[in-house]
Predict the structure.
Amino acid sequence: MSLRKPIPRKLKYFVYILRCSDGSYYTGYTNDLEKRIALHNKGNGAKYLRGKGPVKLVYVKEYRYYKNAIHAERNIKKLTKSAKENLIRNYGAKKPIY
């Protein structure tokens, strides 16, 4: 019988929603939220966001596991705009993070 120690997880994954300057929303995931938002605001990163900056972080949720973050991002992307606004209103970034 071998008892293995659990592998400590150092990374955190974030699912986020950004509000673009044109009022649309962009959903993504990352393990470095500050760097990713800076990248989006520089016009790099997602093609969808080019020319739609500056963006504002309106929702963020932290996950321990990569797969959970991917599934959450996929589910949020399926939501309608009004459902995303409801999610932001109820569970959004309570204080400005970046």
Summary: The CA atoms of residues 27 and 74 lie 9 Å apart.
